[in-house]
Amino acid sequence: MKxxxxxxxxxxxxxxxxxxKDAPSRDVAQVVVRLDQPRQVIEGFGASGCWWAQEVxxxxxxxxxxxxxxxxxxxxxxxxxxYRHNLGAGSQDDAAITxxxxxxxxxxxxxxxxxxxxxAAATRLLHEFVAIGAQRVILFAVSPPVGMxxxxxxxxxxxxxxxxxxxxxxxxxxxxxxxLGAATAHFVGEAGLPVTGLSPLNEPEWxxxxxxxxxCHYSPAETVRMLRAADTELQARALPVRLxxxxxxxxxxxxxxLKAIAADPVLRARLSDIGVHSYFSQAAHKxxxxxxxxxxxxxxxxxxxxxxxxxxxxxxxxxxxxxxxRTVLEDLVIGRVCSxxxxxxxxxxDYRDGLLQLEPATKxxxxxxxxxxxxxxxxxxxxxxxxLEVHTPWAEPxxxxxxxxxxxxALVCANSGSTPxxxxxxxxxxxxxxxxxxxxTDPTLDLAAQPVADEPAFFLLPAESVTTFVxxxx
Length: 474
Prior knowledge:
- The chain is α/β, with parallel strands linked by helices and 474 residues long.
- It folds into two domains: 8-40 and 387-473, Golgi alpha-mannosidase II (Immunoglobulin-like), CATH 2.60.40; 43-383, Glycosidases (TIM Barrel, Alpha-Beta Barrel).
- It is built from eleven helices and 19 strands.
- The protein has helices at 2-10, 53-56, 61-72, 120-132, 173-188, 220-237, 255-262, 265-270, 283-296, 318-333, 369-378; strands at 28-41, 44-48, 82-86, 136-140, 195-199, 242-248, 273-277, 301-306, 339-347, 354-359, 364-367, 386-391, 399-403, 409-415, 421-427, 433-441, 448-449, 459-461, 465-473.
- The chain has a nine-stranded mixed β-sheet. It has an eight-stranded parallel barrel with strand order 2-3-4-5-6-7-8-9, surrounded by four helices.
- Helix 10 links the parallel strand 8 and strand 9.
- Helix 5 (173-188) crosses helix 6 (220-237) and helix 6 (220-237) packs across helix 7 (255-262).
- It is globular.
């Protein structure tokens, strides 16, 4: 019955121009795809191996393959193309970090020499994910190796007098950069992996002064020095890898750091890919940062490189899936990000921080609606797709469109309401368009293909759903 009801509402009027062929009903929302207003070019969607890859890399091969397929396979999964691999700082034996999975092994051995056999489980997954479908690898560090920190730990000391200080030992910027450069050269050369980015900092504005996880504070000036050192190292090694950063913890706190970076002539010329995280960020914060970049650094490409809901408890329903969808739509539409990268690709915890839920006792994995909601975008907005302006009657972004490589248009719409929403889609080019395919995620469906009928009517967005329509000219 559900499929039949969907079909009745799924019939579509795809008319040229901005007016419908028939007078629109008041309960039908008018959605206009502006083909003449292209925005950013999509580079991809991804997630990180932090806090779980070192565990799952030792699980049975069948489970590892299932994880990889759900994440990176386009037919059987959501078709992510970016994998973020953590270069740990060496906290694996630090009992002060009470959650073992928040510790990370470094590639630096006890004698101070680099040892590529370390962190073997996470590295095993890295290779397997690339074989399955990850097209780009971004190496990132959240702390310098413990041998390069002030306190010999992968997190800082409590601030004195309320003043945050970096935990990177004085004068060790070049040493840290050489370590990052050597690791990058190894993964690119000997390991033969498609590493495209190196990010040496992570949320530098926070204090990172408690033993909860690895982390390192940097002031704006210290951020500039560390990025300069990393850039110098990449240039000296002539690696085909771009510098990314500084992975700011929220849109609201980003501008002071970006002002300092943009004021440095070398970094302004060399650093074109800016990373920001969507934690604690409202639509107004995103609009403010986007406006600042447009005015002061128009050539920069903005990437959303880390986010999860930060909410306790497991959730396999649309509640967390719709929160994720809203965040993705805001970041694409308001922030105009070129890539969108989730935090933990998988989690074993009772927390909404993973796309996949891990079950350590049985070494199995379970998908969440967060995975499917992200897949409604990542499966279709492939690298090279161009985001288009979409006009809707809604105050918040509930739809985003993109021109695909083959000329088709993909339109993703979210309906967080408890009742279905009718929409009528029109285009700005004066041509008629036909519906090619459609997929929906709702409380009972996951990226499910829907029957298509080419007759005049409207789209129906089911209650609590994310829907993707792919259309082509007649």
